[in-house]
Design goal:
Helix content is 36%, strand content 14%. The protein is an alpha/beta fold and 322 residues long. Strand 6, helix 9 and strand 7 form a beta-alpha-beta unit. The radius of gyration is 40 Å and the shape is globular.
Length: 322
């Protein structure tokens, strides 16, 4: 097929001297066959002024054959071709050749690729080690996620609520407590928090079967999201005035979960926690909900001041196998 298009292209190079483009264009493009028409009929219809060169061109075009036609016959008219007509004819021949060549290539241009770049995480955090830290080989780890109001680059803001506040007041905890700070205008990212936990476990005496997560407001949402991202990493979670997507709980039915919320919360309606709890209960999950009927958004103060909360955490241990 390629050789036929090359022959057409060579014949059309000198077409500016041909005076029959009106007939030539449809004839070439449609491969019109006129095997029963006498050659003299169209030879005699051409003007006498056409010279040898034009006859040679017509002869060459007439002798071009294709697999599905016997002969291409060119009829002549008396007007001279315009440059645009010649351009159409030449482009049609060349594009036909290109199309034939392209047809041999695979239909799809997709190819396999691979991303290989390091995942770099920079994060400020507060680290608390128990007083007897050096006396034991491993300790439970509590990850605390603050709310949206404590975002930024000043770690003092993280001490406003929750365990960091109590530690700042002198309270001793039987945990390693890690309290990261989320940058301004960002939200908690599960992949970044997982990287932080990896680093803490590498550098400190952490019992990997007793890792707990809790957080308030934005941190409550982050707690649900992180548990969904790594459902078999934790021994228990305790989201406070948070919420999430109910489909997240599909992989959390094995995970002890204690949810807290204020009954009069106007910032994050209590239904956000109720929806998550209902979804877990529907799947026979290990979950319980505490609602403070007269409390607004600040349901964390009463939660983190309650010694029973920490006792419950310490009772939970990750199963040896998921």
């Amino acid at each position: 097929m390629k050789s036929h298009y090359r022959e057409l292209a060579r014949a059309l190079v000198v077409l500016p001297r041909v005076s029959c483009p009106g007939c030539l264009v449809p004839t070439v493009l449609s491969r019109h066959v006129s095997s029963d028409e006498p050659r003299a009929a169209w030879e005699n219809s051409r003007p006498r002024s056409a010279g040898r060169n034009r006859r040679r061109i017509h002869q060459r075009l007439a002798e071009v054959t294709t697999p599905d036609t016997k002969r291409i016959t060119v009829k002549s008219t008396s007007f001279r071709p315009s440059p645009c007509c010649l351009a159409i004819v030449i482009c049609s021949a060349v594009s036909g050749f290109a199309s034939a060549a392209h047809a041999e290539e695979p239909a799809s241009s997709q190819r396999a690729a691979k991303l290989d770049r390091p995942f770099r995480v920079q994060m400020n955090y507060l680290l608390y080690l128990p007083e007897e830290y050096e006396e034991r080989e491993s300790w439970p780890l509590l990850l605390f996620l603050h709310g949206s109001g404590e975002r930024g680059d000043d770690l003092e803001r993280v001490k406003v609520h929750g365990p960091p506040k109590l530690i700042g007041q002198g309270k001793n905890f039987p945990f390693i407590v890690v309290s990261p700070q989320c940058p301004k205008n960002h939200r908690w990212q599960a992949a970044e928090l997982t990287t932080l936990l990896d680093q803490i476990e590498e550098d400190h005496n952490v019992d990997p079967d007793r890792v707990y997560v809790t957080g308030l407001s934005m941190g409550g949402f982050g707690t649900w999201a992180l548990a969904s991202f790594a459902p078999h990493r934790f021994a228990a979670i305790a989201p406070v005035c948070g919420g999430g997507e109910t489909y997240w709980v599909r992989d959390l039915t094995h995970l002890p979960t204690w949810v807290f919320h204020g009954g009069k919360d106007q910032s994050v309606p209590v239904r956000r926690s109720q929806e998550m709890v209902d979804a877990l209960e529907k799947r026979k999950g290990n979950v319980k909900l505490t609602v403070y009927p007269e409390t607004g958004h600040d349901s964390w103060t009463e939660t983190y001041d309650d010694p029973d909360f920490y006792r419950w955490l310490l009772e939970q241990k990750r199963p040896t196998s998921p």
